Amino acid sequence: MAIERTLSIIKPDAVAKNVIGQIYSRFENAGLKIIAARMIHLSRAEAEGFYAVHRERPFFKDLVDFMVSGPVIVQALEGDNAILKHRDLMGATDPKKAEKGTIRADFADSIDANAVHGSDAAETAKVEIAYFFPALNIYSR
Ligand code: UDP
């Protein structure tokens, strides 16, 4: 299988719930390595830029309001099949539909406050990682 990289965000609700370590453990137990990480309180411009693909969607303003409501933890993950593996660990966007044992089933409250973000494809992963991390802040190992 191919070694891939993906971008993960632990959203403000999960940071507020103090489950950063529990979420990191799930990545590590699944064989995903954290190769870059930072805590950041996003500005509106940063959140809008990150979610620019959703600009026309009805939930865009609420999504941005939520993403700037508190600090987030952003990390790049690396491993075999990392993009899909990470999406599987996250579970469905709506936690009510997320499979048992997934991050969203266990820690998310609603489709808006859904604990985590993960890139959905290789091209998006590349753009999203570059949005937060210059190449020299990524420590592949
Ligand atoms: N979202 C929302 N309401 C919706 C759909 C999406 O608030 O009806 C938010 C939700 O936080 C989601 C994000 O917009 O995580 C991006 O949506 P996407 O469909 O890309 O879901 P994801 O890839 O995060 O599972």
What are the salient characteristics of this protein?
single chain, 141 residues, alpha+beta, four-stranded antiparallel β-sheet, 7 helices, 4 strands, binds uridine-5'-diphosphate, phosphoprotein, Nucleoside diphosphate kinase, Nucleoside_diP_kinase
Structure description:
The chain has 141 residues and is of the alpha+beta class. It has helices spanning 12-16, 20-29, 44-50, 60-67, 82-90, 103-107, 122-132; strands at 3-10, 33-40, 72-80, 116-118. A four-stranded antiparallel sheet has the order 2-3-1-4. It starts with a strand and ends in a 9-residue tail after the last helix. The mean pLDDT is 98. The structure holds uridine-5'-diphosphate. Uridine-5'-diphosphate binds next to loops. The active site is at 117 (pros-phosphohistidine intermediate). Residues 3-140 form the Nucleoside diphosphate kinase-like domain. Homotetramer. GO terms for molecular function: nucleoside diphosphate kinase activity.
**What is the terminal separation in angstroms?**
17 Å
Strand content: 15-25%
* pLDDT < 50 stretches: none
What does the radius of gyration come to? Answer: 14 Å
- Which ligands, by name, code or SMILES, are bound? uridine-5'-diphosphate
Residue-averaged pLDDT, rounded? 98
Query: Main beta sheet, described?
Result: 4 strands, antiparallel
Structural class: alpha+beta
* Overall geometric form: globular
Number of helices: 7
Order of helices and strands: EHHEHHEHHEH
Helix content: 25-40%
Spatial arrangement of strands, main beta sheet? 2-3-1-4
The total strand number stands at 4
Function: Major role in the synthesis of nucleoside triphosphates other than ATP. The ATP gamma phosphate is transferred to the NDP beta phosphate via a ping-pong mechanism, using a phosphorylated active-site intermediate.
EC number: 2.7.4.6
Keywords: ATP-binding, Cytoplasm, Kinase, Magnesium, Metal-binding, Nucleotide metabolism, Nucleotide-binding, Phosphoprotein, Transferase
Family: Belongs to the NDK family.
